[in-house]
Structure formats: C-alpha cells, structure tokens
Known about the structure:
This protein is mainly α. It is 75% helix and 0% strand. It contains 5 helices and no strands. It has helices at 2-10, 22-33, 40-48, 60-92, 96-132. Helix 4 runs antiparallel to helix 5.
Amino acid sequence: MDEVKAQKKTGRWRVINFRLTTEEYDLLSGRWKQTTLKKLSAYVRQVLFGRKLTVKTRNVSADELVAELVLLKKELNAIGVNFNQAVHRLHTLDHAPQMQDWLRRWDADKVVLFKQLSAIYARMAVIESAWLQ
C-alpha cells in the first residue's frame, strides 16, 4: 500500500539499495549538505543523472562586513551608554559649582566621543568603498 501511495505522489516506485562505508557516506552527506537540496535522495538523483546542483557558498566579504558591523555596533552602544550616564548625572546635580565641574568633564568626554565617531565613520567609509568594488 505504501508503494502505491509513493508512486502516486512522486511517480517513482523503483527502489535501489546500496551499501557505503562510513567514509563514503560522510563524503556523500557532506557534499549533499553543501547544496540547497533538502533530501539526500534528491541529491543522489541530481548527481546520478548529471543535473546541475545549486551549491551554498560563503561570501567571505559579507562575513567580514558583518563582523565589522558587529564591532561598530558595540562601539556605538558603548558611546550611547556613556552619553546616557552623563545625562543622568546632569539631572542629579543641584548646585551651580557641580554643574560647572560636570560641564568640564563633559567637554573632555565629548572630545573622546567625537574622536570615536570619526574613527567609526572612517572605518565605515573603507568598508563601503571595498564593498562597492
């Protein structure tokens, strides 16, 4: 009964069995997993009949871009946290001398902030020019 259902569903009803060593199966399975095919039997048919296969490939430049963007995101997050802490501190001050002291420290932090932002923008420009080539 199952053979009849399978034949109606796929049009295939002949079964071929063969044995492989562990190394042969690992090689076959590894090559199959590099393709877009979901079933091993479909992969074997494609190879057996010489049909074209779509192989998954890694885009190294995209991987490098993603790694750079992750680092940039972390740096921007750290800058945002520092800014939020500075603003929170500003809201807690209640005396003019404390405010002036805070402003002096903020000016020094602002220089660091803008330097970091400039470095981020420069790195993003390098990535953009490399990506567009």
